[in-house]
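Action item from last week, closing it out:
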Amino acid sequence: MPELPEVETTKRGISPHILNRKVKAANIYFPTLRWPIDPEISSELPGQKLEAIIRRGKYLIFQFKTGSLLLHLGMSGSLRIVTSKDPREKHDHFELVFSNKHILRLRDPRRFGAVLWTKESWDQHKLIKNLGPEPLNNDFSGEYLFKESCNKSLAIKNYIMNSKIIVGVGNIYASESLFKAGINPKKAANKVSKQRYILLADAIKSVLSASIKQGGTTLKDFSDPNGNPGYFALHLNVYGRAGEECFQCNKKIKQCVIGQRSTFYCPHCQR
């Protein structure tokens, strides 16, 4: 599933090609994704200039004069910049054709993605208004995580994956950040010290920033808008390494299930 680094990589990849360009056509080929695509998009967007592209959590917001297009890549979605010479494939469900002949095309084999149109302020949309802070912004800190955790007894891995607490910390990045901060993923959130949360916030920022720099993490589906894979998977310390030696202590990496998700950790380094 594309997570924050993959979505940010996508945003950075597509922006130079389509930002401040006018839409010539909005083509809906398969309207039934996670929610139906509003057919109004096809008549509303042509002639409008794309004024901004914003990432909020795992959503991309395309701002136009009369409203905003909210796009989520779901489980297997991807965006690519193509031209009319590139044939549309089976799972290409939606596209925006721009005045410079570039086409932004959404591919989503599993159809769990979303293309939503709103004329209201995008940050008040029901899917976005209750999201937690962005982990790479200045208002995210260890002090914030500690304060929010005081009455929460769930496992800390589930706590930092809750998008109402903080956005964008998916399964891979949660395991990697907890390893970097030396916290056992099974530990209750309200049992973690303030000092350890400060380390964790720094670890989350570091892990996500490194993944963005590498272009995301490729497991099955992700590639950037040019079709290139992300390379952060080459730098994983614990995720997917069950039974292998820890790079820090040479003990065996263990795997367990927390919140129905595979979790990887070093029992020696993360006590």
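Closing note: The domain at 142-265 is CATH 1.10.8.50 (Helicase, Ruva Protein; domain 3).
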